[in-house]
Amino acid sequence: MIAVSYHDSLAVLQEAKPVSAGPFDRTEWFNLFTQHHEKKLVFCVAKQGDTMAALPLQQMDSKRLNALTNWYSFTWRPLLTENAVAAPLFAAMARDLKSCARRIVLAPLPDEDASASLLTKAFREAGWFVHRTPCDTNHTLPVKGRRYADYLASRPGPLRTTIARRKNALCIDIITEFHRDAWDIYQDIYAGSWKPSEGDPRFLKEFAMEEGRAGRLRLGIARHEGAPVAAQFWTVEQGTAYIHKLAHRSESNRLSPGTVLTAALMEHMIDRDHVALVDFGTGHDRYKADWMEEIRPRFRLDCHNPAHVGSWPHIARAALQRLASGISAG
To answer: Is the pTM higher than 0.90?
Structure first.
């Protein structure tokens, strides 16, 4: 028998301890949401014996739930405890959610672990109208046992030339513990870069502090003649390096500090941390192709409950979009 319940606190996750696939699945990540999030948090939980699945959600209004994500999330996926069988647990949650929501939007979902496909199937079979569309791309580098020198030799010629010409003009520090002074340098460089304003600087700082305490932080700073000109925030865990944030001062473009700093961090991750994968997050930035070798799609599931009259216009629009774009129902 599967029991479905709803919770507004992390206690249910802290007790069950679902398996974490990365930084965006951990209880510590969701704990930050409880401190920095204005919307109501909803953890939809399905339990079967000693196993559990959970959907971390946020209440957008009285009829709509969204995946619990923010500016910094690379991905979102259901949480599962060890040995949990996903399909029946997802099916139970999809059926039960019809009693409390008219619309549920889940994104950005991966499918290399079948999350998007399993949830699509579960919601459709439960009677939801599900509009599944690609919403983003994730650039990755499978290291495949290479040393950094071998990896670098496979990069585009212009990139290798830039690194060779500029690296001697810069001094690189890679910091593995959180230090307030170093974080202040990162924030100052980010504020002076071309990047848009941070989504929530306090959230990111507290995340960096947590990663530092756990030994997962890799904060790179590049200096020219003693002055900081570029900074990057990476983390590493379970054999994967995550590139969260990178920025450089616009006036330092001639030094290519971002390129040189990325190269230094790649060397550190490959030769010292011995990662198997580098994850460059989401986005269609063309420069990522110089560093990464594979692209994984991210999906959006827009689920509408046809039992509500208010869902019908959304369903009609989605059906027309699907017809016009040739997107198959599967």
So the answer is: yes
